[in-house]
């Protein structure tokens, strides 16, 4: 992935990252669409390229790249859901820690829209892989502990310990 895209990713909304990746996808996918004459074959080529690209990306760029790659695979939605969307959530399950809440909501909205389109194409498929690809409410609302919070907690325990030791020492002195 080009360095300017990665460097600017932290400042952009996730939708802008997706748009940027969609624009450069033709340059990173080394085949012509339809080369396999199979929607599943085309989807797997996109998926394999995306998997190689995201290995060294930060969480936000990775999410944008997965969404951009997935947008290329609607003709093989069943392959895309299992081998890219669900695969991403399983293999990068801790990305929610680094992603912004709006990034995770964007992902869930993308999956909602995907579901509507997917089920319109193949109403016979009720895909559990798609259901298990969403960010949970807990993941969306995740707030990491800041170093100040950890230090304050440590200071509280240290203070309580010192007070307790002082009370114990005072009680021994009176006897």
What does this protein structure show overall?
The protein has two domains: 3-144; 145-175. It is 70% helix and 0% strand. The chain has helices spanning 3-9, 14-28, 39-54, 59-70, 77-91, 101-121, 128-131, 137-140, 147-174.
For the biggest sheet, the summary is:
none
Specify the helix fraction band.
55-70%
Report the mean per-residue pLDDT as an integer. 78
Helix-strand pattern: HHHHHHHHH
Strand content: under 5%
- Count of helices? 9
Stretches where pLDDT is under 50 for at least 5 consecutive residues are 1-8
Question: How many strands appear in the DSSP assignment?
Answer: 0
Brief account:
The chain is mainly α and 175 residues long. Helix content is 70%, strand content 0%.
Keywords:
about 180 residues, mainly alpha, 9 helices, about 70% helix, disordered N terminus
Strand and helix map with partners:
Elements: H1 3-9, H2 14-28, H3 39-54, H4 59-70, H5 77-91, H6 101-121, H7 128-131, H8 137-140, H9 147-174
Helix pairs in contact: 2-4, 3-4, 3-5, 4-5
